[in-house]
Amino acid sequence: MKDFNLENRKFIIGGVAIFVVTVYILRLFTLQLLSDDYKKNADSNAFLKKIEYPSRGAISDRTGKLLVYNQPAYDIMVVMNEESGHLDTMEFCNALGITKEYFIKRMNDIKDYSKNPGYSRFTQQLFMTQLSDKEFSVFQEKMFRFPGFYVQKRSIRQYQYPYAAHVLGDVGEVSESDIEDDDYYQPGDYIGKLGVEKSYEKQLRGEKGVQILLRDAHGRIQGSYQDGKFDTKPVPGKDLTLSIDIRLQALAERMLEGKIGSIVGIEPSTGEVLCMASSPSYDPRLMVGRQRGKNHIRLTRNVWKPLLNRSIMGQYPPGSTFKTTQALTFLSEGIITPHTMFPCHHGFTYRGLHVGCHGHASPLNVVEALSTSCNGFFCWGLYYMMGNRRKYPHVQVAMNTWRDYMVSMGMGYKLGIDLPGEKRGLIPNAEFYDKAYHGSWNGLTVISIAIGQGEVNMTPLQIANLCATIANRGYYYKPHVVKKVQGEPLDTAYTQRHYTKAKRNAYGWVVAGMRSSAIKGTCKMMSRLPFTVCGKTGTAQNRGQDHSVCMTFAPMENPKIALAVYVENGGFGADFAVPIAKVLLEQYITGKLSPSAEKEATALQKRRIGYGKANR
Questions:
Q1: Which of 60, 155, 377, 481 is 20 to 30 A away from residue 91, measured at CA?
Q2: 287-316: per-residue pLDDT in tens?
């Protein structure tokens, strides 16, 4: 008779044995195939994988002048698995010129996964960054006394000029999110933070190399593993040629000293940005070395916001420069003809609404209205467009038609410049006003947009691009600050023409109006220049002092530069913006300033508004 208890016990014991064996097999499989802990330990005893950093691409201006280059620097690396517990801490600290407290904190931070998520005791970790040649030579003499510590050679950025900080940007240590976004980076690496250093990071950074060194049982380097058979050489980053003219850039920044505002110059035939100045600014050399963090904090806390690139981030009312877009729209839509005359009795007056204007001849046509910057003319034009029921079934259709013209001219949306942080400005549409006025509004309600006030906002870049579009008689290229990338073609986004909705013959009349302005109108001080200039002033209303605005291009028939000058709280366009634009045009077109222009430039440089001396 079978003993079923004994039979069951046999199966239980067998099952337990099979389970134990299975657990051991799985554990061995995990340790040997899935986990690399033991492999790392073995490899770290036999090999030292030394990262070789590539040289970052250099940056030059359009004339070949070197703007940004590399300078050798040295990082101190540590492998925690090799670092001796018998390290003479004081001698180590004295060799690097640091305190014992800093040493302890830094070592703890390295091992803190929350601060250093890529930490491994078997691989090199960054202890200290950017030692100079002198600091490195002092440490190198004693390095043999500090097992586990190594020197990693790399390069840091140097800036040749104290200009173009907002365009060039800077390079800083990677953040945790940078590492998560791109596995190319590891803690201690550097990445472009602003400007072209950021937007062209992948072209500039190059590719890392790896040198595998063989070590003996005592951890001493014996040379390259298999004579470097498995080493990879670093690939240098690609050089950039910017479209910026550094001499024009320097003059633009000089003209904005002690003022808040922006200057943008564009080559109409290519969309290349010739200068982009934003004030207040800062010396890009402040963002280099171990003091970068402190300097960045100081600039961030500055109430005048020197880190803000007002050229692409500032959103301002364009003032009377916007009247050119109205003339183009009204002519193209048949609201007016070149010979249409509107009255201006010191402004636009209708049904109790009054929009003021300065004194000038009345009535006048579109060319004269642009020349004298008449408010009344363009208010009448918008009023008749919004109220034309034979052409537009209701005001919403008229408004969206108007909006479509503005958008086609490069307003209301980002232009797509190759710099980070661009803002879009604001061009309102029918939905915007339906929401604001609960569907009950008309041309009189929104009349201020006809003269670049009210809800309309543009960046200085958009104003310069508008001027380039007029200079081209109806098309523009996306503005860009990089002219050439070494070894690769320019992005086709920057070589395609963008045509506006306005008719070409309408541009002819607007150019005539801007030329008249430069001869006898609000830009008449430009008439003394030895080439044909077209210009349009703007006085943008503000809660405080009005903003001074000007856009201009030259020469009229073969434009080489389109320029926008925006000076916050500068008053009338002719007070600051026009004389600044005049000096810049002479510099770029003739290649130098005449003695009288240099005298004007010096006087403009000394004139202060708002925050006083420029923060440089």
A1: 155
A2: 987 788 899 999 999 999 999 999 999 999
b/e 428-455 (16+ beta carbons within 10 angstroms → b): bbbeebeeeeeeebbbbbbbbbbbbbbe
CB-based contact 129:292 (threshold 8 Å): no
Distance CA 481, CA 464 (A): 14
CA–CA gap between residue 126 and residue 99 (Å, rounded)? 17
For the chain, how many helices (H) and strands (E)?
A: 21, 20
Nearest CA to 225 out of 233, 215, 234, 235 is that of: 215
Residue at 360: amino acid letter: H
Angle (CA) 280-282-286 rounded to 5° is: 160
- E-strand ranges in 260-340 read 261-267, 272-279
pLDDT tens, residue by residue, 346-382:
999 999 899 999 888 899 999 999 999 999 999 999 9
C-alpha to C-alpha distance for 527 and 371, rounded to whole angstroms: 13
126 with 179: CB under 8 angstroms?
no
Distance of CA 509 to the CA centre of its chain: 35
Is residue 204 within 8 Å of residue 23, measured between CB atoms? no
Q: What is the DSSP string of 69-132?
A: EEEEEEEEEE-TTT--TT--HHHHHHHHT--HHHHHHHHHHHH-TTT-TT--TTS-EEEEEEE-
* Structure token pair of residue 522: 């609000």
Contacts of 294 (CB under 8 A, 6+ apart): none
Bridge-based pairing state of the strands 221-224 and 209-215: antiparallel
CA atoms within 13 A on the CB side of 531: 20
Prior bond of 363 cis (ω within 30°) = yes
**pTM score:** 0.86
